[in-house]
Amino acid sequence: AATTEIYTASTWGFLAAGLALLPFVLVRALRFNARMSSWRGLRFDFPTRVRDALPLYLGMPLLVAATLGLAFPWFMAKHKQFVVSRHVFGTSPLGCSVPVGKVYGIYLRAGLIVAGVGALAVLAVMLGAPLIGKAPQAGWVAFLLPVLASYLGYAFAYAYLQARLTNLVWDGTY
To answer: What whole-number distance in Å separates Cα of residue 35 and Cα of residue 44?
Structure first.
């Protein structure tokens, strides 16, 4: 069994404390970043109170865990909407509407990219396995190529996910 230097109960305590402090840290970080940013002499601001972030950042992780991750795209849509909608440019508040159905579609397509590349990697291993018997020194290639393909597939899916979500958020910003 793996051991840690920290007592197991304290690990859970640190995780709980980190989760409890998440809304405070997030709001303060967004406020700092907004106040230190300007465009053409007008400053941004993030005047949201910590208690406005509590339901989203304390309740949503519990919902995501309870649904075994199925609510994660919904959480991400609400998170991005919260962050953009609570910013102010000068004295003008920003607004954002992120359609949750489209976010689920983006996550589904990214998952299909990862699954497709993973299936191709498994197929490559299955087809390459007989070749290892003929050339045992090439066994590392049979292992390395599917792993490399999986990493490239993940990188492509991640880039796709980030680009599509960012475009969706900016399309819904007013």
So the answer is: 5
